[in-house]
From TrEMBL:
A GO molecular function held by the record: zinc ion binding
InterPro entries tied to this protein: MetalloPept_cat_dom_sf (IPR024079), Peptidase_M12A (IPR001506), Peptidase_Metallo (IPR006026)
Gene that encodes it: LOC115380461
UniProt-annotated catalytic positions: E149
Protein name as annotated: Metalloendopeptidase
Organism: Myripristis murdjan
PANTHER family, alphabetized: DISCOIDIN, CUB, EGF, LAMININ , AND ZINC METALLOPROTEASE DOMAIN CONTAINING, METALLOENDOPEPTIDASE
Amino acid sequence: MGEEDDSGELSVSDLLERANSNLIPSVDEPILIGGDIAVDSESEKNADPCTSRGCMWGKWTDGKVYIPYYITNHFCKCTSREKAIITRGLESFSSVSCIRFRPSRSSDRDWLSIESQNGCYSYVGRRGGKQVVSLARRGCLYHGTVQHELLHALGFNHEQTRSDRDSHIRVLLENVQSGKEHNFRKIATLNQGTPYDYNSVMQYRRTAFSKNNKPTMVPIPNPNVSFGNAKEMSRNDIARLNTLYKCCEFTNPATGLDTPRHPHVLMQLTVRSTSPV
């Protein structure tokens, strides 16, 4: 049976924490920060690559953003179910945005290599060349988890690292596991009036990285607000994606805001394009 059959009521945050707990990465795998964001060196822990350099995927003249991908043979050949879960996640972007994931060709210089490594992880934004997105066969093959890692690859960070997060959540470092404090560092994002989204698929749960099962994050001003329960992209996630990549058929060109099918949300992240539009 496929992974999705036993997901029950678990959120993406729950699934990620379960899949990535007690990981022992191999020597050729990246360092993970924020639980599932890949970086290649210790120095990158304190620098958001999307604010220090451009990391968007380029747009073509037809207004679409084509992102090549290759699904490796790590996934079970005896059934199509594993690849079907990944493919469904890839294709979910095309119905709500101008993002089009397509199979890679030999002429592609940059592409996503979707592999089953240790845990679930992705780099943030376009890095150039082969770019690994890990979706371990044990623990990561869920629709929302696939979307979460692909949003990282598109340039998005976790919701709780927003520059204005202190106005929306209070981080309780006294409850955070020793050595995991860096997972709660803020990033110098340009939020441009974007509302904080407790329902974002990029928002971690209340007890993420807790050493004592007590909350590591508490909403403010209302501590009883539910958050970190998303199982797929929220309407705000979709709206931000469309604004970031200027998906004209999904946004109002006069305002840059999303059409009525999604909430009015502006871009969250400071990401610049390195490719001509």
